[in-house]
Amino acid sequence: MKLTTSLGLIALLVEAALGQNFPECTRELLRTDDCAAVVNPNACYNQFRWNARTLGCIEGENDTQRKQRACKCCSCVGTVMCNWVTQNRYCS
Ligand SMILES: *[C@@H]1O[C@H](CO)[C@@H](O)[C@H](O)[C@H]1NC(C)=O
């Protein structure tokens, strides 16, 4: 296999392992209620350090809605949140 081919394959595998690409945090996205519910509880995230209880920080009627919001707006909080939702398989 040529070197360039194997590098391309590795990049593909890494991308697959990371699961998916999350939407970029645009100003429009940030303005939505969904994103406000995810971005506002920043202090809460720092307190729980990204474990199972972190989901409770997000504003929402139920966990289903919290997970959806987290998946949609994780990029507005940062890579740490996108990694967290991926690891917990919150995004389908
Ligand atoms: C969670 O809340 C959303 C939004 O109100 C609603 O559409 C959904 O049916 C609820 N899911 C459960 C399991 O209660």
Low-confidence stretches: none
In this structure, how is the largest beta sheet organized? none
Structural class: mainly alpha
Q: What Rg, in angstroms, do the CA atoms define? A: 15 Å
Bound molecules: 2-acetamido-2-deoxy-beta-D-glucopyranose
How many helices? The count is 6
What this model shows, in words?
The chain has 6 helices and no strands. The protein is an all-alpha fold and 92 residues long. Helices cover 63% and strands 0% of the residues. The protein has helices spanning 3-18, 27-30, 33-39, 42-48, 63-77, 79-87. The radius of gyration is 15 Å and the shape is globular. The longest helix is centred in the first third of the chain and has 16 residues, at 3-18. Helix 3 crosses helix 5 (63-77). The model has no long low-confidence stretch (mean pLDDT 86). The termini are far apart.
Summed up:
By secondary structure, the chain is mainly alpha-helical.
Q: Tags for this entry?
A:
92 residues, 6 helices, globular, binds 2-acetamido-2-deoxy-beta-D-glucopyranose
Topology, element by element:
Elements: H1 3-18, H2 27-30, H3 33-39, H4 42-48, H5 63-77, H6 79-87
Helix pairs in contact: 3-5, 5-6
Bound molecules: 2-acetamido-2-deoxy-beta-D-glucopyranose (NAG).
